[in-house]
Amino acid sequence: MTEDINNENVPEENTPKNPTESNSVSEEQTEQATDANPTAAPVLEQAVEGENANQEISQQAPVPPTEPVAPQGQQTAFEQQVASPFTNPVNPTVPTVAARKELIVLPIISFVVSVITLILAWFAPLPIIYVIIAFLGLIYAIVGLIVNIQRKKVLSIIALVLASLVFLVSGLAVFVRQAQNNPDPTEQTESKKSDEKDDTDVDDDDSEDSTDVKDYIADSSDFKFKWTKSKFTDLKFSSYSSKNGDSLKSIIKKFGKGSNASISGESLNLEYRKSGDDDERESVRLTFRKQYNGKFILSDGYAYFTSKNIKTVSEKSYKSDWTQADVDALTVGDSSTGKGGVNLNEVLKKHGNPTEARESISNYGDGFKTSLKILYNSYDSNDSSKLGYVSLEFAQQSNDDYLLTYKYPKK
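^ CD20-like domain protein, sequence as received from the core. Prediction below:
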């Protein structure tokens, strides 16, 4: 009895010793639960399947290797510092500063001024003015270089070099053109000394001057035109208050006999004209007055010389664009001074270079005056609406400008 009681009091072990038994029990329990609640069957099946799957994955999944730990004080490849694109590769601690863009306004102004000056200094009148302009271009280039000292300065350097060259070339142009217009100073000095000696020899001659014009006209084979602008302006003219003009004999001794001569009363006219020149492009005409001692002294005169300051074109290539309305629109100034007249530069700008340009220098006892005569000659023009011949005269001003004093044809 005692054993029976003990057997009744000892509970059965719930934990199965065999896993298969546990699975069978679970299946039986599942079936019982399914029979009791049919709707819970799918849920229970999914739970069982998920549990089994987790057990399989946990058994199959490999254990990831542990990441090695870098020793203290060292950096891994991912922790190394990446160089900045703005870091100086030579000295990483110094940042690289990109050069700023160049300011090109001043270099461009210097370029333009230099090119224009270079052209005008060789062809336009008064080249000394363009030397001054070239100097201003050089200043622009220097200022441009200073402004761009902390920037890119390629254009500034080129502008400085160009402006320097233009300044030197402009100065050379002034020197060359003055040498062309003026004779050698040494020759002038020697000629002046020779003339003074000739004057002394002539003054020693107390005889009266001849009144026969043949004595003052040279043979065509012996005539030579020796005149220049400077030689004409070196002449001494008498006036109402002074009788110290050059004598007729001194002129004959310096320049030879003339190409033509005439006497009218107490006046003698002596003319020098280049051989074959019928239009007075190169000519000198002098008037002498007879004094109480029978000698002729220079009283007045004028000369024509081809202008070297105005560029001309040939008559064959010139095509007139002048109309009578154009000539009528020109304002004529004072006949002596040109004051109020149109400027020569305006005429040249509108109608271009003339076919002929010659300077006239005159002295009527009141000092030398210079004027300019230009001709537009296009007789071969077939356009009846255009003028074939236009003649204009200008008076030179103190600033070397020319103002209109005469025009032809008139309305």
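Residues 1-48, 53-61, 72-88 have pLDDT under 50 and may be disordered.
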